[in-house]
């Protein structure tokens, strides 16, 4: 039985999720579109902005593990496929580039299982 998260804990989780998604999109854009570190192509910048908006409006942040496990998919089909492509490419690379973020993200997901 898990305890309820405070508003501060929910916002911290939301912030961590934004950071992880942004780093994943950045890694994808750098690898697939050849952009420089710290910058995004217009397509990936739109995806990052969209993902940030969806994360900021997620009503299930306190109880969900990962967006892929959520019973409500709030991304449009086009953006959902784009973010899946990003995660498929960047996920394995994140362990080498941002191991602390990956471990923390995994722990956030395991807390509710």
- Helix-strand category: mainly alpha
The biggest sheet amounts to: none
Number of self-contained structural domains: 1
How many separate helices? 4
Q: What are the low-pLDDT stretches, counting only 5+ consecutive residues below 50?
A: none
SSE arrangement, N to C: HHHH
Given the C-alpha coordinates, what overall shape results? globular
- What is the residue-mean pLDDT, rounded to a whole number? 86
Proportion of residues in helical segments: 55-70%
Distance between the termini: 10 Å
**What's the Cα radius of gyration?**
14 Å
- Count every beta strand, where a strand is a DSSP E run of 2 or more residues: 0
Give the amount of beta strand, in percent.
Answer: under 5%
Pfam families: YgbA_NO (PF11756)
InterPro entries: Uncharacterised_YgbA (IPR020483)
Protein name: Nitrous oxide-stimulated promoter family protein
């Amino acid at each position: 039985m898990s305890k309820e998260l405070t508003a501060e804990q929910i916002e911290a989780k939301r912030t961590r999720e934004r950071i992880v998604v942004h780093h994943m999109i950045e890694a994808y854009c750098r690898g697939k579109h050849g952009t420089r570190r710290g910058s995004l192509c217009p397509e990936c910048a739109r995806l990052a902005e969209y993902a940030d908006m969806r994360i900021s409006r997620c009503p299930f942040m306190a109880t969900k593990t990962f967006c892929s496990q959520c019973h409500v998919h709030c991304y449009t089909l086009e953006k959902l496929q784009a973010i899946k492509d990003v995660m498929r490419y960047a996920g394995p690379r994140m362990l080498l580039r941002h191991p602390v973020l990956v471990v923390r993200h995994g722990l956030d997901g395991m807390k509710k299982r």
